[in-house]
Design brief:
11% strand; two-stranded antiparallel ribbon; alpha+beta; 11 helices
């Protein structure tokens, strides 16, 4: 812009009769550009930009109105001003200025066509001078330069955004990996905590279950020892019978303790095991608790099926289910408690269905979707139940045996838990 005014000043010096912009205006513009440069350097970017655009807008509109709306130099300046607004200000400012120029050109063209405003057409009748040609070339060069700057800036912005996006994607991937690893670690920790809590809960269940079974053999041992103590030497043979009965009772106690110990061991080596035999072991352990609640446990198996997994973890499943079933039957008095365990193969499928059905108190319908949640329990607060059993059952079935569990319950009539396992 500064160069254009220098060219115009040179033209006045060479040809004072030129009908272009007056010399005073040219000198004023030169001073104005110097002031704008000072403002820009001092940080008044927007102010200097608006002053620059205004300084070119007003003379351009004047030229369009005085020499015609089709004046080439004025039209080129219009394009240049719009581009300057886009670069130094923003898109909204460029659109506003473009709208002003569009309205001005259309309005001036209509006024000039209808001769409401007279146009000075002297420039049309004179040949183009070198200064005018250079002015057009410089304006076109400036427009090209501005366009190139915009393209370059946009390209740099695009590359910068692309680079930042790649870095962001990399960071997101690293975060996702870390979150996944952390989530996995937390799940493992939670599972270990649950297993520890389940072990403690199992101790309580086993203690209450085998308590009654141990009392009876101990009573037998005590009575037989008393019989031996009261008999004389002449009845040694009969005393041997008492000893055998006492030994049998102690063997029963030993069997119960070994069964409980197997259930509480942390080792859980995977192997093929008999489903029926493992359930029978749990049934024996839970018989004491069942008798105390006047509940009968029945087992029906259409065959003996073998699955691969940890028999101890498998036992925890049905110890919990049977314990819950016994508690449900105990709450549904005076009805005699009956728990029926059914083992059968699903028709047209390689899945084993194990059902534990009771005629207990049942589960409220609004609780069915929550019973497998950790720490949720339907039992009374004084039962000291923490709500771990069914959540552990579901976790073992799904993670250790790749199976599923479903529940069907009617309030006051009982519940049926069906475990589906691949075989």
């Amino acid at each position: 812009m500064f160069l254009l005014n220098l060219i115009r000043l040179h033209d006045f010096i060479i040809n004072p009769d030129n009908q272009g912009l007056p010399l005073s205006a040219t000198l004023g513009l030169l001073a104005f550009f110097i002031i704008l440069q000072i403002l820009f350097k001092k940080g008044y970017r927007n102010l200097s930009a608006w002053l620059l655009i205004t300084a070119y807008t007003l003379p351009t509109i004047f030229c369009l109105s005085y020499w015609g709306a089709d004046l080439p130099a004025a039209l080129l300046m219009t394009v240049l001003i719009i581009m300057l607004a886009g670069i130094f200000l923003n898109t909204k400012a460029a659109l506003t200025i473009a709208s002003i120029f569009a309205g001005a050109i259309i309005g001036l063209n209509w006024l000039q066509t209808n001769q409401i405003i007279k146009v000075n057409n002297d420039w049309r009748q004179q040949p183009m001078q070198l200064a005018d040609a250079l002015s057009y070339v410089i304006v076109l060069g400036l427009i090209f330069g501005l366009a190139w700057m915009i393209v370059k800036e946009n390209k740099q912005t695009f590359l910068s955004l692309k680079h930042k996006q790649e870095e962001l994607n990399k960071i997101n991937e690293e975060l996702e990996i870390k979150v996944a690893e952390r989530t996995k670690a937390v799940k493992i920790m939670q599972r270990e905590k649950l297993e520890q809590l389940q072990a403690l809960a199992s101790i309580g269940q086993l203690t209450s279950s085998i308590f009654h079974d141990i009392i009876n053999p101990l009573t037998i041992v005590s009575l037989n020892l008393e019989q031996i103590e009261t008999k004389g030497d002449c009845e040694i043979e009969k005393s041997n019978v008492y000893v055998q009965q006492a030994l049998s009772a102690t063997a029963r106690i030993n069997e119960l303790i070994n069964s409980a110990n197997r259930c509480l061991r942390r080792q859980n080596q995977e192997k093929y095991f008999s489903v029926r035999q493992e359930i029978e072991k749990i049934q024996k352990i839970m018989e004491g608790k069942a008798r105390a609640s006047q509940t009968i446990i029945q087992l029906e198996a259409e065959g003996d099926y073998y699955i691969k997994g940890g028999p101890i973890r498998f036992g925890q499943i049905f110890m919990n289910l049977l314990s819950n079933a016994i508690d449900a039957c105990a709450q549904n008095k005076p009805t005699a408690g009956i728990i029926k365990i059914t083992i059968k193969k699903q028709t047209d499928s390689n899945k084993l269905l194990i059902s534990v059905k009771d005629n207990g108190i049942g589960i409220p319908p609004d609780h069915l979707h929550k019973i497998f949640n950790i720490f949720f329990t339907t039992k009374p607060e004084d039962s000291k139940n923490v709500g771990l059993g069914l959540s552990i059952v579901k976790e073992i079935i799904e993670n250790d045996f790749q199976g599923a569990i479903a529940v069907d319950s009617q309030l006051g009539k009982g519940s049926a838990f069906t475990v589906s396992l691949p075989i």
